[in-house]
Amino acid sequence: MKKSIVSMTIALMIPCLLTGCIKKADSESETTAVSSRETEAKTDQSSSGADASTQTEAEKAQSAKGSGKVVVYNWGEYIDPEVLDLFEEETGIKVVYEEFETNEIMYPKVAAGAATYDLICPSDYMIAKMIDNDLLQPINFDHIPNYSNIDEIYIEQSKGFDPENQYSIPYCWGTVGILYNTSMIEEGDVVDSWEILWDEKYKDNILMQDSVRDAFMIPEKMLGYDINTVDEDEVSECADKLIEQKPLVQAYVIDQVRDKMIGSEAALGVIFSGEAIYTQRENEDLEYVIPKEGSNMWIDSWVIPKDAQNVENAEKFLDFLCRPEIALMNFDYITYSTPNKAARELIEDEEIRNSTIAFPTKEMLENCDVYSYIGEDGDALLAKYWDKVKSS
Questions:
Q1: How far is 202 from 17, CA to CA, in rounded Å?
Q2: Is this structure's pTM higher than 0.90?
Q3: 309 neighbors 290 (Cβ within 8 angstroms)
Q4: One digit per residue, pLDDT tens: the chain, 392 residues?
Q5: What is the side-by-side strand order in the sheet with 94-100?
Q6: Residue 383 to residue 9: CA distance in whole angstroms
Q7: Which ranges constitute the DSSP H helices of the chain?
Q8: For helices 13-22 and 273-282, angle between their N-to-C axes, nearest 10 degrees
């Protein structure tokens, strides 16, 4: 599944298909690769005191390129493994790579200092929380010249969670919408509103996100409320709406939405736009829509923790990721939209370059908002009502 950068840019769509098919099959080998990197890093530390004369020629060559490591904490399947290899080969910096499943799993580990990372890729609202709790350090953008490739649109949107754009660099972005199977939707039904997820005709054929912010966002948009509301009356009303819907829901899931929709196990599913792109390649009956009431436009960005031990190496890695050809590799592998305007220009396939799923129009995003940090009290309020929904 590894390819050169040149072949990636020439044949964008082929690896999209192949990668999606083999991601799961490669999970064990990728885990082994991660463990190998960690072992190499430990070996490097333990041998650092050895006499230079005992180094092999290969070790000397690698030392000439650079030294040390960078410890990265990222979402699962959220970077092309070849990108890590290319960075190591070019710089001599070892990448110690760990993965997390949700922002809520990542945050307490970082806040408690249970592990030290040099780079983390949280979502918008979690970045705001980390800034608020003094867990991040400002990025020195003078050391990241390729940052100029990030489209100003996403830098401006980032002000919703990083007001002065001091702490974050956009990595991937997208929307939350409805993925539906055209062969399972009754004739005459139009899928353009969140309301269809409350239609009793589709009982046991609806998949919802098992995520408090994404679940509550839907009734908030339906009822005309701010998706960052902390008004208890509004949150309570949204919870009641979700409880009303619950008997119709087949399951609250996250990654399984993709596989279930591909397998035609449900008619409707709430999904992230990047996943929708992949599913359409696997099942031609699937379509994606941003409901007319609006939705969440999310941004995942790289940040440097305040206690990072290898800041210079983190900056080198960030600059590497912002190269157009590297950003293109990651877009190809992940299928989530890239904020790198130079990378988008390299996409040769017009269908994907002009896809309104990957790159929705300004009009489509008109009613979409970015999540912001709602504070500890806001988190507790949502958690209280989410427990009520799940236990009903």
A1: 30
A2: no
A3: no
A4: 333 333 333 333 333 333 333 333 343 444 344 444 443 443 444 444 444 434 454 444 444 344 599 999 999 999 999 999 999 999 999 999 999 988 989 999 999 999 999 999 999 999 999 999 999 999 999 999 999 999 999 999 999 999 999 999 999 999 999 999 999 999 999 999 999 999 999 999 999 999 999 999 999 999 999 999 999 999 999 999 999 999 999 999 988 999 999 999 999 999 999 999 999 999 999 999 999 999 999 999 999 999 999 999 999 999 999 999 999 999 999 989 999 999 999 999 888 899 999 999 989 999 999 999 999 999 999 999 999 999 99
A5: 94-100, 69-75, 119-120
A6: 44
A7: 5-10, 13-22, 27-46, 57-65, 81-91, 103-111, 124-132, 152-157, 212-222, 232-245, 256-262, 273-282, 311-321, 324-334, 341-346, 350-353, 375-391
A8: 90
Homologous superfamily of the 5-167+300-353 domain (CATH): Periplasmic binding protein-like II (3.40.190.10)
CA distance 198 to 240: 13
CATH architecture type of domain 174-296+368-391: 3-Layer(aba) Sandwich (3.40)
CA dihedral of residues 99, 317, 371, 280 (deg, nearest 10): -70
Domains 5-167+300-353 and 174-296+368-391 share a fold: yes
Backbone angles phi and psi of 214, in degrees to 5: -70, -30
Which residues, including other chains, have CB under 8 Å from residue 50's CB and lie 6 or more apart?
none
Contacts of residue 41, Cβ cutoff 8 Å, sequence gap at least 6: 69, 94, 96
Q: Where are the domains of the chain?
A: 5-167+300-353, 174-296+368-391
- Residue 202 in contact with residue 267, Cβ under 8 Å? yes
Alpha carbons within 13 angstroms on the beta-carbon side of residue 157 total 28
DSSP category for residue 267: S
> By CB neighbour count within 10 A (0-12 exposed, 13-18 middle, 19+ buried), where does 50 fall?
exposed
**What is the C-alpha to C-alpha distance for residues 235 and 229, in angstroms, rounded to an integer?**
7
